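ARCHIVE CARD
CATEGORY: sequence design from structure
SOURCE FIELD: tokenized fold
FIELD CONTENT:
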């Protein structure tokens, strides 16, 4: 019985961790390199292989893929909603500013027998706030009073919201109250189509 046990024990072959030579598990020292194998019997009898370059690159590639996916998710869900429709929002603020100033100009003219101011400062803080809102979105409000007539009053004007950013529309309004727009890189005029 002792012989069968020794035969079964001697058939178990393992690979040395140091020199990767096949040896009998019954030995405590590798006959090829002299490495201590006393703790070797407790481990699995399958040899441990060093990862190949392909496996290392695959692992780093997977890690890089996960990091890029996380970065893309951050940019998509956090940054995009803040910049998604900024052009339409800026144009909306410019049109609102044009309407506010137009309303103030009309009220001013009605109170003064059809005469318009020589500058927007005479209209007060509400117009200043509208101009500042438009300016914060890249628009410059430009008020151009018409020439003074024989009675000294100004009876005509034009008001432009000039886009400072390429690709934004510029807007125009005059005493008619029709807001006109152009996407060309210039000031809008009375010849441009009405805003829809």
């Amino acid at each position: 019985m002792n012989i069968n046990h020794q035969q079964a024990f001697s058939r178990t072959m393992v690979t040395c961790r140091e020199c990767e030579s096949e040896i009998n598990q019954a030995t405590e020292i590798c006959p090829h390199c002299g490495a201590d194998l006393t703790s070797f019997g407790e481990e699995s009898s399958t040899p441990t292989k060093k990862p190949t370059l392909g496996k290392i690159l695959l692992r780093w590639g997977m890690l890089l893929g996960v990091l890029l996916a996380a970065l893309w998710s951050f940019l998509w869900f956090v940054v995009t909603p803040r910049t998604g429709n900024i052009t339409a929002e800026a144009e909306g603020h410019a049109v609102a500013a044009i309407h506010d100033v137009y309303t103030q100009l009309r009220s001013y003219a009605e109170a003064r027998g059809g005469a318009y101011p020589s500058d927007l400062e005479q209209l007060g803080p509400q117009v200043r706030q509208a101009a500042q809102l438009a300016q914060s979105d890249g628009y410059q409000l430009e008020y151009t009073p018409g020439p003074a007539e024989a009675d000294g009053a100004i009876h005509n004007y034009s008001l432009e919201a000039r886009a400072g950013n390429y690709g934004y529309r510029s807007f125009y309004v005059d005493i008619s109250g029709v807001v006109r727009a152009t996407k060309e890189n210039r000031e809008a005029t009375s010849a441009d189509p009405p805003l829809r």
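CARD ANNOTATION: Confidence is low (pLDDT under 50) at residues 5-10. The beta strands are 13-15, 22-24, 139-145, 157-163, 170-174, 180-182.
SHELF: design records, drawer C
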